[in-house]
Amino acid sequence: MSWAVPARFARRELRGGLSGFRIFLACLALGVAAIAGVGSVRSAIEQGLEEQGAILLGGDAQVEFTYRFASEEERAWMESAATAVSEVTDFRSMATVLRDGTSDRGLTQVKSVDAAYPLLGDMVLDPAMPLSEALSNQGGVMAPVLADRLGLAPGDTFRLGTQEFTLRATIVTEPDDAGDGFGLGPRTIVLTQDLQGSGLLAPGSLYETEYRLLLPEGADLDATKQAALDQFEANGLSWRDARNGAPGIARFVERLGSFLVLVGLSGLAVGGVGVSAAVRAYLAKKTSVIATLRTLGATRAVIFRTYFLQIGALSLLGIAIGLVLGAAIPIAFGGIINDALPVPAVFTLHIGPLSEAALYGLLTALVFTLWPLARAEDVRAATLFRDALGSAKLLPAPRYLIATAGLLIALVGSAALLSGSARLTLWTAGGIFGALLVLVLTAFLIRWLARLATGLARGRPVLRWALGAIGGPGESAGAVVLSLGLGLSVLAAVGQIDGNLRAAIQRDLPDIAPSYFFVDIQKDQMPGYLDRLENDPAVSRIDSAPMLRGVVTRINGQPAQEVVGPHWVVRGDRGVTYAAQPDARTTVTEGEWWPEDYSGPPQISFAAEEAEEMGLQLGDTVTINVLGRDITGTITSFRDVDFSTAGIGFVLTMNPAALQGAPHTFISTVYAEPEAEAAILRDLANTYPNITAIRVRDAIDRVSELLEGIGAAIRWGAAATLLTGFLVLIGAAAAGEGARTYEAAILKTLGASRARILSSFALRSALLGAGAGAVAIGAGIAGGWAVATFVMETDFSVIWGSALGIVAGGIIATLLAGLAFAWRPLAARPAGILRARE
User: Fold this and answer.
1) Per the database record, which ranges form the ABC3 transporter permease C-terminal domain (predicted)?
2) pLDDT given for residue 372 in this prediction
3) What are the Cα distances from residue 828, in Å, to 677, 740, 754, 763, 765?
4) How far apart are the C-alpha atoms of 771 and 424, rounded to whole Å?
């Protein structure tokens, strides 16, 4: 059968305009626009990171060492491979200001540099001056927020450790700040040579040394990287280059973008419900046209192809509108977005995310329109004049079921492949499918209960009319419950996740967290440090441990990442400690601890949970590079380590003889009454200027700020989904306007007042909204529990305020949509309506 005749019919049908398809187009366009917009912003950031990678990194490549400077041999290699080398150290310290006999302190992330810094990019200062001038003669620059907090102005002095510096300017732009990663304190920059004797870069102190390299024109990055690793990887060298100048931000953008795309897909699924409802309502209005065509000899294939082409053309229009919006909005607001981002972004036309959004939109349109289109062709011509689709079979022909299943698999498969997180995608798809199934069953249950309760509502005409309308064959309960319920489910899940994350950070953790982390305590300072704290009645607990940092390089003689993959323990350096005996709070779960006087080959006690994730067994060997020296130990025990308490926790603990010869400092946590914290910090900082104090509450607040930004992005995505659901509600209400007009005419004829009819309309909307909201509570709690338990691995408790707000939102949304389309039915004259039905 040729497509020519159906194409001619479809073209003539489309001449009638877009009446009945505005909601269809809006749902599809909004879903596609959300995905295209998120993808475009992500691509803009990724392109910015790629183009500005060298500037963000501070050079073409970077060689990094943990808590030591490069040896002469390593420095010689860098000088031979690069045209310019800049040495940078990065560490935390306390900036101290002495004023009128008192001292004020603030945690700062210190970057000490040499005369060559920065190799790339420009440091912009206020007041404007060259960086070399600002750092000369014991000068320093710092972030404005830190200067304001300490009450500093250019010309004032501050201390780092025992060294005094003069603030010359505040930092406006730091070219490589995004490449430095997450810091707990604002930035301060000084010359490395001016820190000599400060005690901050002593052997064993916690700092990182980064060597930024400018490579010759046309240098092979892969070959240079391999040469560096071949010679010095065993010394603890780590490598980064301009192809991944800000890896932390790149990973964050990728993961958040993937999650937001999945939220967008949820919105597209909500829109798909609206698309399906719109197609069904449209075909119901076309029964006379279809009947005429069938009478004139049109086959089922002609009918199906006619409306398939028509709906297909409108779907392409909706997708095109969504793509234009998704591409144009990020470009239009590119300046504002760039100002809010910590990294450069290139806002232009990004074909990749637009193609991805178009694919999702096309597959969604096919999945949700194929079923109603297929059902239309199964209705006999003799019955098309009366509720064609309502009298059709529930399920279409098997070929359409198979095609729908195939399209659904293609949609989920594409999302799993393109999102970069197949596991999360499959869980999301399963959650959406499960929620849709529950909502479909709920819609049937609501209609069944409404029919059952109609007889019990005698004497209450308003309630009886509302229940009769919900349970009747013409009511759009299914579309209302599906669209609103799915949108509210996404919002409810986000609300539960956000609430539990806030609770874990702001409520649960501070109850058990220490007041301070003190780091860089020298061994000879420990007696005096402990004496100050142990004699303070406000201090309830002190935990201390020797602290080294090491890189896990090999497991059982093989490269660690080849054995366990990109597990967080083998990415970067990890904390390592030693202990002769486990303390009272250590629980050995398997194996045995070494004897207290053990002095044989190195032994390791490994964190049990991480060992299980990495597949480690007792007897396995682990090689750790500490300060350029490889130490290979045998795992002889596993122990519980709870990192959620914000206390001291080490993945690796070794016997003392294995590490005591290496230069190291001590780390300590102090649990004290809040009112005693200021005095503890003052006394210890005055006595030991090299010690860095990290107030746990400040660290928690810093993390909370970051999480708030993430939560806001996710909530905006969920709000877009809910908006789509509200559009579907409007479509369902508009589609049922004719039925409500006829119903109002009958009721007016029987003597019902407008107020009672309006109350009936409002009551049915409220009942459907309450049903959708109740399901959303269950789905949201289940989704929130799954994410909290399996993704965030934290405790879960129901946030009832958010959950009950969802029900209220469902009721209000359906009321607004229902009442918006109630006025014309109420105003219609019964005589004209009833004559038209004769």
Assistant:
1) 263-375, 720-825
2) 82
3) 74, 10, 11, 21, 20
4) 28
DSSP string, 114-160: -TT--SSS--EEES---HHHHHTTTEEEE-HHHHHHHT--TT-EEEE
Percentage of the chain with pLDDT > 90?
Answer: 20
- What is d(CA 752, CA 747) in angstroms, rounded to the nearest whole number? 5
pLDDT single digits (tens) 139-191: 999 999 889 988 999 999 999 988 999 999 999 988 887 655 556 678 999 99
Averaged pLDDT, 787-815 = 76
596 SS3 class: coil
Q: How many CB atoms lie within 10 A of CB 834?
A: 14
* Residues ≥6 apart with Cβ < 8 Å to 474: 387, 390, 736, 739
Q: Which of 729, 782, 730, 732 is nearest to 432 (CA)?
A: 782
pLDDT in tens, 7-16: 888 888 777 6
- 768's enclosing H/E stretch is helix 754-786
For 45-101, where are the E strands, in sequence order? 61-66, 84-99
Query: What pLDDT, on a 0 to 100 scale, did the predictor assign at position 178?
Result: 65
Residues with Cβ < 8 Å from 499, sequence gap 6 or more?
Answer: 784, 799, 802
Q: Note whether 43 and 354 are within 8 A (CB).
A: no
**Structural contact between residues 352 and 326, judged by C-beta atoms closer than 8 angstroms:** no
Q: What is the DSSP letter of 594?
A: P
- For 122, 279, 735, the CA distances from 383, given in Å and listed in that order, are 77, 19, 21
- For residues 641 and 649, give the distance between their C-alpha atoms in angstroms, rounded to a whole number: 6
Cβ-count burial 106-122 (b if 16+ within 10 Å, e if not): bbbbbbbbeeebbbbbe
**How far is the C-alpha of 92 from the C-alpha of 97, rounded, in Å?**
16
Residues 6+ apart with CB under 8 A from 141: 125, 131, 134, 135, 167, 168, 169, 170, 171, 188, 189
- The structure tokens 């003539």 sit at 12
Which two three-digit tokens encode residue 474?
A: 């013409």
In the predicted structure, residue 603 carries a pLDDT above the cut 90: yes
Residues with Cβ within 8 Å of residue 464, at least 6 apart in sequence: 454, 457, 458
Tokens of 701: 């607040």
Other beta carbons within 10 Å of 132: 12
CA distances from 79 to 39, 73, 113, 583, 737 (A): 41, 10, 17, 48, 79
Best CA proximity match to 140, nearest among 527, 565, 151, 152: 152
Task: Name the token pair of 217.
Answer: 């024109």
pLDDT at 548: 87
- pLDDT band, residue 388 (cuts 50/70/90): very low
Q: How many Å apart are CA 284 and CA 479, to the nearest integer?
A: 15
Highest mean pLDDT among 132-141, 239-248, 672-681, 782-791: 132-141
Block residue for tokens 């500093």: 152
Q: Is 336 left (phi over 0), alpha (psi -120 to 50) or beta?
A: alpha
Give the per-residue pLDDT at 88: 93
Nearest by Cα to 283 from 367, 198, 392: 392
φ/ψ region of 757 (left if φ > 0, alpha if ψ in -120 to 50, else beta) reads alpha
Rounded CA-CA distance 143/138 in Å is 17
Task: Flag whether pLDDT at 339 surpasses 60.
Answer: yes
* Each residue's pLDDT tens digit, 45-102: 878 777 777 777 788 888 888 888 998 999 999 999 999 999 999 988 889 898 877 7
Cβ 726 vs Cβ 718: under 8 Å: no
Predicted local distance difference test score (pLDDT) of residue 475: 52
Q: What is the pTM of this model?
A: 0.70
What the block records as the tokens of 587 is: 């629980």
Quote the mean pLDDT of the chain: 81
The larger pLDDT score, comparing residue 227 to residue 457, is at 227
